[in-house]
Structure formats: C-alpha cells, structure tokens
Design goal:
345 residues, 10 strands
C-alpha cells in the first residue's frame, strides 16, 4: 500500500483551503481519519488503501453462500462481484427484483437475485423465506444496504425512516435468517455501520425514535449507524457459544450518491477535493469482504472494524451494553409482528 500518499493527502488536507472546506462536510471530521488499531486481536496486513479483491486474493469460496443486501450499486455491487469472483454463490438483494436481476446478471459467477425493500417489513420476511427455501446454509449475511435521507423528517411504521430502514429492516432479516447462518460451518453476520455513528452524540434516544422531540438528519443517520453496531454487539453475545460470529464495519467515506443531498458549496468541495480523503468503491468494500471471509477471524465477534482491522476509534456508546440490550428489546417490540415465533418469545 502507498502509505506515504495517505500521509501526504492528510497533510495537504490540513494545510489547504480545500481542507478547510471538506473538513466541514457533515460526512467527515477534521479528526485524523486513521483508525486506532486494537492489537490485542488479529492485526491484518491490509489497510485503508486495500481493495476487496486484494483482501480475498487466493481464496476459494466455492460451496459457500453469501447474502448481500443492496447489491445493485456501490459497495453492495462490489461486495457481490468480488465474493462471486472467488467462487461463492451470492444472493443479491435490491429494492425491486428487476434491480437485483440486472445487478446479478452483470457479474461473473453464481448469483441469485431477490427483492428486499427494507422500508417494508413484510418484504424482509418474504425475502428471508425465499432464502430459507433454497435449503442451504448461509455462510455470510452482509447487511450492506442503507439510506441517507438528509431532508425533512420522514416516518416509516411510526419511527424515523433511516432508523427503520438501516436498522429495523435488517434486524428483521438477521432474526429471520439466524438458523441458516447457524447451519453454516462458520457463519458470519456483517453489519455496515459508519464512523458517522459518532454523530449520535447522545446515543440512542429511545424517547425520540420518531423525531418528535428534535430532529437533525445527520444525527438521525448517526443513530441508525450506531444501532447497526450495537445490534451486532448483542447478536455476538447471543451466539458466543456457537461457531458463528457477528461484527460491524466502517467502510470509509465514499463518494457514491451522498453529495446530491449536500448544499451546493459542499458538493463543490466534495467534487474538487474529495480525492484527498475519499475511498474508492473497491477500497470501501474491502473491510466487509475481509470480515466476512478472513480465516484469521474465526471466533472474533462483537467488534467494530475499519480499514480491515478492529478499531478502537469509536464513541463511548459502542461499548454500552445496557444501551445495546435496550435497543434489542425495543427493536423486538417495534418489529414483533415480523419476527419468527422463537424470537418473539
């Protein structure tokens, strides 16, 4: 990896007028973007500049099955492409079957398209039923799909839309597909979080899930990403007696569809100076693919990964087991009609 280039980029970012502009972007932070690696756990040879192909180089995933939500664009498409390239059978979901079919037909390897509209909780139930009907284990469940609604408050089933889609839709899916993942020799749940979880500066405000007390779109996005990580933390505790694992990942700041939601001057900064700090899509998909496939991570569960390593650079709420437990309980209450009977109990 060209680490000198990464250092030079950060120096230039800090010294330039462009750096002043991009440091104010809501998606980013003026803090040093490098992760703080927890070296008490396996430390990989990969980092911020590694790509999904590089972290899976030499792997033969033949006979394994992965499900990737949001396969029709960006990180989801690249994750599906690389896993299929390495021999995995990839179930790719899109908001419509047509979108999933187009994406799956665009990659080499064995793929199965399925529809999954996370804003429609019944869709998550139906998608899981279709996966179970395949009659095979699920080695990797990669909850990649997500939305950014940086505008007016919107509600889905009575809660803020980003929380409903990014967290609750996936919460239903992982509970519905728990048994197929457990049936795999070493099943892995991978939840896409984000360093934006630090925007949830009060953690999960359970009395404000509908935004009725106050609403900031960036804070709400941060809450949904914190929820993704806490969900993985609780799930990891629940399955610690098994061979399965659950972890969350920060893919990096990537220029996908995000800029269209920003003010004009911030879009200009992103377009003109984004190369200083943005990851490419192949780089952004690397951590998900690493956590889903690396043989070094057998038995490693309940952690937050960034740049292909366990990161200690996170908010205090990421280690708040009481908040995580309450989130799980509240999530069960909000989705009770869509959970398997065993999970309702």
């Amino acid at each position: 990896r060209n680490t000198n280039m990464s250092i030079d980029r950060r120096k230039f970012l800090g010294l330039s007028a462009g750096g002043i502009a991009v440091a104010t972007l809501p998606a980013c932070s003026s803090e040093d973007p490098e992760v703080s690696i927890d070296d008490s756990l396996p430390v990989s040879a990969f980092g911020a500049d590694s790509t999904a192909e590089e972290v899976t180089a030499g792997m033969d995933l033949s006979g394994r099955t992965a499900l990737v939500t949001g396969c029709n664009s960006g990180l989801g498409f690249e994750t599906m492409r690389v896993l299929a390239l390495r021999g995995a059978h990839v179930i790719g979901t899109g908001r419509t079957l047509e979108k999933a079919e187009i994406a799956c037909a665009s990659v080499d390897g064995e793929t199965t398209p399925m529809a999954l509209e996370l804003a429609d909780f019944q869709s998550a139930v139906d998608c899981a039923a279709a996966v179970r009907a395949l009659g095979r284990g699920l080695d990797m469940l990669i909850c990649n799909a997500g939305i950014n609604t940086f505008g007016e408050l919107e509600l889905v089933n009575g809660v803020e839309k980003q929380f409903a889609v990014n967290h609750l839709g996936h919460f239903i899916l992982i509970n519905q597909l728990r048994q197929p993942v457990m049936a795999a020799p070493q099943g892995r749940f991978v939840m896409l979080s984000s360093r934006a979880h630090r925007r949830a500066d009060k953690g999960i405000e359970f009395d404000n899930l509908d935004g009725s007390q106050h609403y900031s779109p960036w804070n709400a996005y941060g809450v949904s990403k914190l929820a993704n990580a806490l969900c993985a933390r609780v799930l990891a505790q629940q399955i610690e007696h098994t061979d399965a694992t659950a972890n969350s990942v920060h893919p990096g700041v990537i220029n996908t569809g995000l800029p269209k939601y920003l003010p004009g001057w911030q879009q200009w900064a992103m377009n003109n100076f984004g190369w200083l700090f943005l990851k490419s899509i192949p780089e952004g998909a690397a951590t998900s693919c690493y956590v889903a496939t690396s043989p070094d991570l057998v038995g490693v569960r309940g952690f937050y990964f960034a740049d292909c390593n366990v990161s200690e650079k996170k908010s205090e709420f990421m280690d708040d087991d009481a908040m995580a437990a309450k989130l799980w309980e509240v999530s069960e209450e909000l989705t009770r009609d869509y959970l398997p009977v065993t999970r309702k109990a």
